[in-house]
Structures are given as C-alpha cells and as structure tokens.
C-alpha cells in the first residue's frame, strides 16, 4: 500500500478514489435522506467509554464464539450484495481474508461470486445469507446449494421484502452491469485500475442466481427478474418453513423490534442480528445501537444477539458489546477495504479493528471481551452536526429544504 492507512476511514477514502462513483455511492450510501444511516454512526459516537486504570491488562483475550463458530475478534464479515463489483472475484477474496484472520464470512444471495466459487476457494465453513424470493423453488435450491457447500449457518434477512429506495443509485442509474450513460461511461473510463480488475474477474453478474433462471437469456432479463422477486407477502409461516428445512444454525437478520426478537426465540432461531440494514432500507428508523439494549433485555438470555450498523472502529465493538451484543457484523468497513486493496484491504480493515479493540480494552481496564458490561459505556451529547460529507445521498439543498 502506498500511503499509510491508519483507520477504516483511510480505506474509505482510498475506495472512493479507486471506484467509479456509481459503485462507490452504492457501497457508501443509504436509503432516502440517509437519516438512519447517519443515526447509526452518530448514536455510536454519542456513547462514551469509561476509562479505567490500575488493572493488569497486559494480556487481552478477544476471541468469542458466534453460533459455535470461533472468531478471533467479536466480529463477522456481514453479507453485502455486489461486493464482486468493487474488486475482481471480491467475495472470494474477502472469504479468504476472513479465513486467514479467523472470523466468520457470510456470502450474500446477491453476490457476484457464487456459493460454489467461495466453497472451492476456502476450507473453513462459511455462512450464507438468504433473501426469500417469490419463487419458492429458487429459495429451496439456494438453501440446498448452501447445505451442499457445507455452509454452517444460514442468515435469513427479514428486512428486504421491499427494496429501500437509494436516491444516489437511482440518480446514477445503478444496475448490473452499470447502465452506460455519457456520464457513467466517463466515470468508468476514468477509473482504469478498477476497469482492468473487472476485466480479469471470473464473473460480472449475480453468481448465485444466474443458473437459477433458465429463461433469463441475458443480464438485463436476470436483473428485472430479481427486482420482481422481493416478496412482501412473506410472514412468520415462511420463516418457520425455512427453520424446518434448514437443519443447521439459523440467524435472523434485521430485527429492530422486541416483538420480532421474541418471535425469533419462539421459532427456534439460534441468533438474531439487531440491524436496520446499515440504513439502506427504512429511512427514519432508529439507529440499531439505540434499540439494542431493549432487545437484549427481552431475549438476551435465550438467544445469541449480534449487532450491526455503523461499526467503524474497535471502540464501536466495545460499545455494542457494552450494550449487550455478543458480537458484531461489519458491512461497509470491510467493503471499503476490499474496494481499496482486495484481500489485503479486508485484512487491513480487520487488523485495524483488532488493534483498536485491543487498545480500547486496555484503556477501559478490560482483559477479556467476556468482561465487557454496561458499565463500560455512558451516554454523552452527540459530537457532530448531522450530515455526512461526501455522501452519495441527498444534495445539501434537499437536506436543508427538509430541516
Ligand atoms: C453495499 C451493501 C450491500 C449490502 N447487501 C446486503 C445483502 O445482500 N444482504 C443483507 O442481508 N444485507 C446487506 N447489507 C447490509 C449489511 O449486511 C449490514 O447490515 C450493514 O452494512 C451494516 O452496517 P455498516 O455498513 O454500517 O456496517 C448490505 C450493506 C451494504 C453497505
């Protein structure tokens, strides 16, 4: 790497430089006015960590188990669609980084590399994330393929039965492959490193779904079919059906309500992820950190509670665990690393988070992540004015019009 990288934000800056805007905005942005996206980070920032001294913290134990799976630090690589458009064979590179570092990796239904590509390139069992499609035979087929590939857990995402509107993506004409307008063409041509990388990539379409739909003769037919497949009718019975046919660990993702958390326990899920999809679905939803304590209070003694939304530093992991999460998942932090430097970039993101977690534990007087408790965090007034610089979302004029 040319210039030193000292935080995930440096990886973000590098990703912004390397990617065409249409791809960077897809990774970086959120739904609507990006209120929830902002809240995720602002509310984590507003929690303060209690410094605690005069304890021997020369050895810090940071490993945990997530649904029985060992994790070197309390973090898993969360599912993100189209990661393989940020770097050639991106999901395979990220899975290899996760295996090397020792954290679980979850492959998205909407990945570019397929379940089988990742299974062939790795030896550690990975997790598969499922979006339920209207066509049940596709769901069945994906579940069967994940089982055959040895996936040890299925993450069922509950919060994408309709797709959140991301204004930047609509403005940019994001599609697979990106729609070529004059502006996009110029944008893409002015990022030759990315373009050359993509030319080397094994796949450039939805690797898991490509073979599922025989009648989709070309990429745009496949994209249209996928867009028509998100299923607003799926309900508790559908989730029970998944529980019945998937006999390994089941994790429900997108839990933001205590009632939903209780249902997850009732149907026999092994874990839940408190998540608002990184602010990409219901704009105006609360931050995931703000609802975490009530969900942990309601079900934390009966099911593993994981957290995502806004994790950018090791301190954020401590805060989420202080609020009761057993472990966290990361979306954008590892994606920025992948987009910046491929497998090395994902490893860099993981090492940065590990080092920050270790330092944060030392300064808060903790020698074991198992000892992180609510006493380590305290609420403080927000630090920053709202509004993320350089966001791909609403323009400043639009933002101020709404204030
Ligand atoms: C570019 C992008 C694509 C995503 N795709 C998926 C997906 O395919 N399935 C899913 O369950 N969640 C998806 N998510 C949500 C993430 O799994 C995770 O919930 C979210 O990114 C956490 O917030 P963070 O990015 O602040 O860490 C995606 C997130 C991003 C940023």
Automatic annotation (TrEMBL):
Names of required cofactors: FMN
Region annotation (Disordered) ranges: 378-403
Keyword Oxidoreductase attributed: yes
Database matches in Pfam families: FMN_dh
Keywords: Flavoprotein, FMN, Oxidoreductase
Stretch forming the signal peptide: none
Family statement: Belongs to the FMN-dependent alpha-hydroxy acid dehydrogenase family.
Protein's name in the database: Alpha-hydroxy-acid oxidizing protein
Provenance organism: Massilia terrae
């Amino acid at each position: 790497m040319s210039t030193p990288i000292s935080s995930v934000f440096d990886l973000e800056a590098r990703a912004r430089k390397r990617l065409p805007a249409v791809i960077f905005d897809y990774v970086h942005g959120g739904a609507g006015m990006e209120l929830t996206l902002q809240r995720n980070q602002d509310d984590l920032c507003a929690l303060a960590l209690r410094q605690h001294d005069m304890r021997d913290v020369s050895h810090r134990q940071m490993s945990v188990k997530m649904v029985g799976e060992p994790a070197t630090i309390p973090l898993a690589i969360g599912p993100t669609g189209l990661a393989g458009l940020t770097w050639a064979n991106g999901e395979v590179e990220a899975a290899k980084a996760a295996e090397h570092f020792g954290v679980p990796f979850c492959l998205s239904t909407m990945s570019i590399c397929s379940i089988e590509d990742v299974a062939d390139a790795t030896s550690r069992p990975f997790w598969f994330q499922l979006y339920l499609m209207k066509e049940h035979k596709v769901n069945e087929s994906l579940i069967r393929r994940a089982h055959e590939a040895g996936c040890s857990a299925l993450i069922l995402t509950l919060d994408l039965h309709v797709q959140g509107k991301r204004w930047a993506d609509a403005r940019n004409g994001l599609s697979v492959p990106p729609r070529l307008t004059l502006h996009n063409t110029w944008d893409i041509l002015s990022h030759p490193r990315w373009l050359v990388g993509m030319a080397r990539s094994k796949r450039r379409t939805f690797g898991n779904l490509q073979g599922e739909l025989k009648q989709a003769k070309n990429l745009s037919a496949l994209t249209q079919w996928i867009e028509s497949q998100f299923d607003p009718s799926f309900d508790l019975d559908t989730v029970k059906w998944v529980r019945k046919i998937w006999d390994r660990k089941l994790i429900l993702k997108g839990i933001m309500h205590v009632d939903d958390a209780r249902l997850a326990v009732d149907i026999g899920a092994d874990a839940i992820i408190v998540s608002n999809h990184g602010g990409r679905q219901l704009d105006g939803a609360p931050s995931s950190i703000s609802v975490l304590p009530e969900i942990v209070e309601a079900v934390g003694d009966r099911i593993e509670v994981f957290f995502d939304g806004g994790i950018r530093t090791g301190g954020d992991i401590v805060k989420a665990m202080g609020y009761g999460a057993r472990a966290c998942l990361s979306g954008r932090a590892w994606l920025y690393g992948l987009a910046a430097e491929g497998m090395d970039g994902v490893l860099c993101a993981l090492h940065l988070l590990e080092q920050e977690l270790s330092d944060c534990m030392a300064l808060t007087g903790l020698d074991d992540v198992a000892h992180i408790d609510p006493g380590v965090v305290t609420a403080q007034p927000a630090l920053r004015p709202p509004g993320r610089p350089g966001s791909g979302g609403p323009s400043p004029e639009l933002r101020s019009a709404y204030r």
